[in-house]
Amino acid sequence: MSKRIVLFMIIALFMAGCNVADKVKDKYMVEDEVRTEDVLAEIKGEPKKEVVKDTTVKPVSKRELKRMAKKQKKEEKRLSGDTLNFFERKFPKKIQRDSIYPQVYKSQPRSILIIYPYNRSKEQYGDRMFLTAMTKELTLKGYYLFPVTAIAQQAKQDTAFNSRYQTAANAKSYYKDYGADVALYITIYSINKPWWSTKTEIVADYTMISTHTEDTLFHRQATFEYSSPFPLKDKSETSLLADNKEFQIFEAVEQMQHYVFLDFPYGPYHPEYLKDKKKFSHQTEMNYKISIIPE
Amino acid sequence: MRKILILLIITVVFAGCKKTLYLYQNYSELTYTYAKGGWDDKEVKRLTKQYKTIVELPKKSTFVPPPGCSADYACMMLRQGDTVKAKEYFDKEMLLYPESRTYVEKVKKDLGL
Lengths: 295, 113
Known about the structure:
The complex is a heterodimer. Chain A is of the alpha/beta class. Chain A folds into 2 domains: 2-59, no CATH class; 94-292, Rossmann fold (3-Layer(aba) Sandwich). Helices cover 41% and strands 18% of the residues of chain A. Chain A contains 10 helices and 9 strands. Chain A starts with a helix and ends with a strand. The mean pLDDT of chain A is 81. Chain B is mostly helical. Chain B has one domain (20-111): Alpha Horseshoe (Serine Threonine Protein Phosphatase 5, Tetratricopeptide repeat), CATH 1.25.40. In chain B, 67% of the residues lie in helices and 0% in strands. In chain B, helix 4 packs antiparallel against helix 5 (83-96). The chains are: A alpha/beta, B mainly alpha. Chain A binds chain B through residues 110-111, 125, 128-129, 131-133, 135-136, 139-140, 142-150, 152-153, 156, 177-181, 239-241, 250, 254, 269-270, and chain B through 20-22, 24, 26-37, 47, 66-69, 71-72, 75-76, 93, 97, 99-103, 106-107.
């Protein structure tokens, strides 16, 4: 028992001593600068300078100094209008759909014809992947999309039926031939899926032209990054796709269409048709990068 | 308290039930695979059989086939030489989606259906 008390006392004394030593040091130790001046004065034989201590100014600790600097930085940021830091820089400002797509709401298109995509990527079947995925996405938005196999067949028979050769000037003919209200042109710049990475990067350009007025209703150039969860999901046994790589690219292409047309106004077959004017929208023309890590 | 709890649970359940517009099943894979081409007659028959589940929904179902699917199925039927069924599905597409009228009528005229 006594041993414990002695041990405790030793520790308490040691701690108190440390504190006392610090206090003594702070009180009596002469500052480096002052000490140097004293030594110099002694060598030169000059009288020592009297140090006048300002008793009204409290010495500030390093921790406090750091805190003050941080506070000042924060205040400066707040005054410059940067309040949300990271988030505000990363995402575009909130814009309402009716201000970005006024012509879509005005012309109220019902059907969209996808002009066969111009595939500049190394992925052989990238164009067909886009065609299928876009058709599904836009039909879910409530529009009428022309049959995929018919478009693919048309492109096979007539090589000119491609976004590479077709221009906005041809748009009017699609109303006459197909009854389409809008022609959608796509250029696929790249589809990259390195074997060592879980990331798929796709770059594509979308333009929607009205077949009645030849106005541009929608334009997007998107760089899309899709990070698949690790380990990579393999295709199911019943899947019709050729291999795992094709399956992973196809998944990324489908996700991309979803995000590109996320803010596009709903079509006549959707229950939200013309009710989404005040919903979120990106800008009409923009370059953006989306990184998605699905759960 | 109990009533509020039950009401809350029901609200949460209904909020989670978002009705989709169409039943796609494996539409994307099927259409993409068919669009890739290079299939023999046996393979086309197999794909057509799978596609039928998207176009011919159960009678009790409140859904309609997605846009363009009936016309796609008609094209598949045409490839197999079944012109009667092809015409039937082209007509179905026109009936469900009047926007397709110009296109379907043109195709039917070109094919002599």
